[in-house]
Write a structure and sequence with these properties.
Chain lengths: ~180, ~475
Amino acid sequence: MFFHIVLERNMQLHPRHFGRDLRDKLVSKLMKDVEGTCSGRHGFIVAITGIESVGKGLIRDGTGFVTFPVKYQCVVFRPFKGEILEAVVSMVNKMGFFAEAGPVQIFVSNHLIPDDMEFQSGDVPNYTTSDGSVKIQKDSEVRLKIIGTRVDATEIFCIGTIKDDFLGVISDPGATS
Amino acid sequence: MSLTADSPVHSPSTSSEDFAAFLDAELDSASDASPHPVGEEEEIEEEAEAEKDDEGDDTNDYDLDFERIKRCKVEILENLSEVETTTSQGVDIQISGASSDKDVCVHPGVIGGLCIRCGLKMDDESGVAFSYIHKNLRLANDEIARLRDKDLKNLLRHKKLYLVLDLDHTLLNSSRFLDITIEEGYLKGSRDDLPDALKSSLYRLDSMHMMTKLRPFVHTFLNEASNLFEMYIYTMGERAYALQMAKLLDPGDVYFNSRVIAQGDCTQRHQKGLDIVLGQESAVLILDDTEAVWGKHKENLILMERYHFFASSCHQFGFSSKSLSELKTDESESDGALATVLKVLQRIHNSFFDTEHSASLVDRDVRQVLKIVKKEVLKGCKVVFTRVFPTQFQGENHHLWKMAEQLGATCSTELDPSVTHVVSLDAGTEKSRWAVQMGKFLVHPRWIEAANYLWKKQPEESYSVSNSKDH
Ligand SMILES: [Zn+2]
């Protein structure tokens, strides 16, 4: 799920950046520092959308660096248990398959793949129904439901299932249109 | 600068954040077909703790109240589902947490700290690690058995077996830059100056400070074997090296997929085990040049003659002769070890899937087939050893004696007309002279070793025995 929220961060800046474009420097450094990172609490910071405020700077003893508290608006992405997500399959093996929804990695074990889908090894490993009508392989797009999440400081890992109504393949890269 | 260390100042009063926390708890409890009391409580406690950090804020009291309400709600939900279970099932009150689920999850495996089946947070370190599939994957023994069983049936339907391949000295040979001798120096020169055969099989891996030479015939071998087997790479080398080698051998990533097992994956030090191969042992063949590492799986092993291309490799194994690279030559492409072993693999595969066979496919054992095929090699030979074992040594315990028997020969200590070969290191012994007189073959012990590697009886005249007095 995506959220638009306000976060705050203390930014340290070297005195050589002080000048007319100090604010720009702060913002670009902020983007570089936080976009694409993950915090256990909020999930992935996808993009900064605006700056709420830049507080008064505080000189750090001894170094000359100045700390500015910056409040910024950003879009964060955080999966929840029970959420339905669309993801791209990144690897298929006899254990199940891995899929990615942006920066989030999701594993769907073969316990949670419908029983009528069988693993097929070979050049392009895949799960296929006995009549061959549905196939999951690398780069397939699937709709899955999150049943467990583990959020660490740097990554979010999920367990998903496609063993339920309206879940499974949305597009099949093997079927050329 | 890590994000968590100098983390942004949390401002729990921000409305969006409360919303996130609220959703988290709501979704967790609402979506839960099978409530997980442990996981839930952890989650909520975290939230509450984070909230406590900021004191003196007016909104904080509200937050804490809010937390309390949330917690009550969760508890009520749990109670509700519990009541439902007991009334609907009526009998088993013990499995309170399982609610409408048919069965309690046995947690067959854990990946990234989550159960692969129910998604519950798991922190115990039980089960076998399958780090080559995913860095944080562990499977319980029952699950491994289930996967193997399922996979074998699938594989047999495709008329395939498993093949585990060693890298060094079996499929290729590597040498560090600094071990390259002067005579091998031409290898480091410009690619255009290399002989044609080397252009496509010699690789310079600057980032690893080494060179790798693929064994002749390896590409054909892999291509042909992939039709008969699901293949694994299994090396005592480090993971980075193994993956690099896999890339050289399998640039299209069609043979090995994620089945590359390296040193760090083994469950026992200095041993290679099939415990981390997701294949039934009765359907696995192994190609390796080192027997000792396969302590528990010698019956699955086809021993390979070592491929020494570089000088450093020869020295490492105590050969003082010139290496293939120094002699600017190589193993034969059409007649080398990999071509030979491919024919053996094909023979075993054929015999395994032979329709004449009485046992059903799943009950067949490739180890038995391997033994039978091997026994064909010296079938009909009756061998007597002389001056091969140390005096006082029990002949039947010697590895050559055992090897000859595995190859289908009969071994004896007595000379009689049925003896076909006398194996000796010295043409001057009584038994050696008897062989010559009676018109029996007199051969060097290498004749047996060669048959063992080549899976074929070798021409006796190439393994003649010299008289020790000649030296
Ligand atoms: Zn479980």
